[in-house]
């Protein structure tokens, strides 16, 4: 009774935490499309192509993310995705009934990360809210992610899976 904040404000909101460099595989699934990304040592040619695509000065010791078939992916998008997930804090926790309802719902997006442990994140749409509901293998509680955080994560997944919607160009507006 002595505190002027609700109990939820005192809870640890960290729902996913890992070291990005320790991640060796990323499994992504959305809209019926699923792909696995694998971190490899990379051939000099792949590293050169990746450095040109990312327009940075990669060293030859840097690992390269590829799809299972060996084709390279946009390294910057993978880095952004891992960065946004590596220390993920939720906005709030869901009550028990909403958490039970999520178990029956189809996720909007699934992400599984493999390093020394297997980590996972499932995102769900919420009726009447821009925020997304989510579950994590690292947290026993269902939670919500703010729309800006969830939007970033979903956009990175869309880019990697090739589901990105084409943006309006000036010629489309005329």
How would you concisely characterize the structure shown here?
The protein has 174 residues and is α+β, with helices and mostly antiparallel strands. It is built from five helices and ten strands; from the N terminus they run βββαβαββαββββαα.
Describe the 3D structure:
It is a single chain. The protein has 174 residues and is of the alpha+beta class. The chain is 29% helix and 30% strand. It is built from 5 helices and 10 strands; from the N terminus they run E-E-E-H-E-H-E-E-H-E-E-E-E-H-H. The chain has helices at residues 44-54, 75-86, 96-104, 147-161, 170-173, and strands spanning 14-17, 25-30, 33-40, 64-67, 87-89, 92-93, 109-114, 118-124, 132-136, 139-145. The strands form 2 sheets. The chain has an 8-stranded antiparallel β-sheet, sandwiched between helices. A two-stranded antiparallel ribbon has the order 1-5. A hairpin with a 2-residue loop joins strand 9 (132-136) and strand 10. The termini are far apart. The model is unreliable at 168-174 (pLDDT under 50).
Summarize the SSE layout with pairings.
Layout: E1 14-17, E2 25-30, E3 33-40, H1 44-54, E4 64-67, H2 75-86, E5 87-89, E6 92-93, H3 96-104, E7 109-114, E8 118-124, E9 132-136, E10 139-145, H4 147-161, H5 170-173
Antiparallel strand pairs: 1-5, 2-3, 2-7, 3-4, 6-10, 7-8, 8-9, 9-10
């Amino acid at each position: 009774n002595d505190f002027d904040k609700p109990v939820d404000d005192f809870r640890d909101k960290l729902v996913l935490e890992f070291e990005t460099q320790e991640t060796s595989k990323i499994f992504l699934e959305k809209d019926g499309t699923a792909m696995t990304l694998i971190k490899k040592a990379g051939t000099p040619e792949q590293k050169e192509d990746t450095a040109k695509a990312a327009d940075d000065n990669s060293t030859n010791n840097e690992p390269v993310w590829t799809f299972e078939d060996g084709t390279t992916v946009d390294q910057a998008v993978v880095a952004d995705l891992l960065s946004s997930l590596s220390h993920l804090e939720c906005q709030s926790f869901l009550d028990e009934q909403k958490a039970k309802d999520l178990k029956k719902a189809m996720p909007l997006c699934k992400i599984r990360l493999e390093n020394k442990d297997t980590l996972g994140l499932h995102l769900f749409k919420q009726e009447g809210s821009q925020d997304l509901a989510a579950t994590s293998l690292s947290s026993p509680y269902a939670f919500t992610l703010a729309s800006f955080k969830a939007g970033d994560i979903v956009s990175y997944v869309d880019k990697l899976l090739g589901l990105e919607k084409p943006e309006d160009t000036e010629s489309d507006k005329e």
